[in-house]
Amino acid sequence: MVSRQAPLCGLAAHCLWFLGVILLMDASARPANHSSTRERAVNREENEILPPDHLNGVKLEMDGHLNKDFHQEVFLGKDMDGFDEDAEPRRSRRKLMVIFSKVDVNTDRRISAKEMQRWIMEKTAEHFQEAVKENKMHFRAVDPDGDGRVSWDEYKVKFLVSKGHSEKEVADAIRNHEELKVDEETQEVLENLRDRWYQADNPPADLLLTEDEFLSFLHPEHSRGMLKFMVKEIIRDLDQDGDKQLSLPEFISLPVGTVENQQGQDMDDSWVKDRKREFEELIDSNHDGIVTMEELENYMDPMNEYNALNEAKQMIAIADENQNHHLEPEEVLKYSEFFTGSKLMDYARNVHEEF
Fold first, then answer.
1. How confident is the model at residue 81 (pLDDT cuts 50, 70, 90)?
2. How many Å separate Cα 347 from the centre of its chain?
3. What is the DSSP code (8-state) at residue 34?
4. Any long-range contacts for 304-307 (C-beta under 8 Å, 24+ apart)?
5. What is the mean pLDDT of the chain?
6. pLDDT-wise least confident of 77-91, 131-145, 279-293
7. CB-based burial of residue 160 (10 Å sphere; 0-12 exposed, 13-18 middle, 19+ buried)?
8. Where are the alpha helices (DSSP H) in 31-183?
9. What is the pLDDT of residue 291?
10. Is there a cis peptide before residue 204, judged by omega within 30 degrees of 0?
11. Bridge pairing between strands 246-247 and 290-291
12. Burial readout 129-141 (b: 16 or more C-beta within 10 A, e: otherwise)
């Protein structure tokens, strides 16, 4: 029996060896697929030099949509990553109660509107500091010679390269004042970026941005002038009758998508309801049914203390079940999804444990 199996085993081993050689040759003959690596590199470069659509701690996105993460951003600050859906619930509860104790300055186990206002301003300042730190890195990406100034043409080359264009061809076309061949969408983005670039160029205008001016270009919330510019852009996009102010119908009429089923209808209804409440309760400060540029600018200014107090009151009202105008540990844990983006169950049983 052993003597008959030996040749078969040898043959099997030989076949496996031969198959391995074929697979190895095939793998070495095929060109390596670096497209995903290149794509990641391009996306990273584009993210470094393009103004972000989303600004932490600012109520509206660049496109005029409400910032859905705002309450978490101004309550958690840099700790937002600590409350992922797969985080251990007990650890998350404990962390949330640590934050509660920091907000509760007078240690009476209740958070007042003034305490929440102070905390919101502190967390907003954290986001500001983070943006300044990131800007230093991003500025180096567009200022390779390190002279501390970047021209619009230098930036345009970097932007188009991030879109897949040849750096040499773009640079040569700009130097020779030739028209660049770009698609319509890219051209529109370029024109918007150029307007924004000029706005960020502080007097005396020289079309060269310093590191501080580049920060205003990427993060308009850091500059009063750029904040005004962002407000004008949002009003321009939403203003249907051209009066340079917003009515409630204009503010809630952004197209969300095609409603094809009940779920889509519910999403649209919720979206309209959120915008209506924001317009009436927070943006339209004199409640005359019209939002002016000044009102929208005050609303979007992340360092506006009056707005921070209004936000604090609104955040407390969301979870204030006993209607005492304060937040207590049980309420914060019960409404944890509003404050952290994740649900933390067993709030009542665990509150004393976590404290």
1. confident
2. 30
3. -
4. 305/117, 305/121, 307/282
5. 83
6. 77-91
7. buried
8. 35-49, 70-76, 89-103, 113-142, 152-162, 167-175
9. 97
10. yes
11. antiparallel
12. eebeeebeebbee
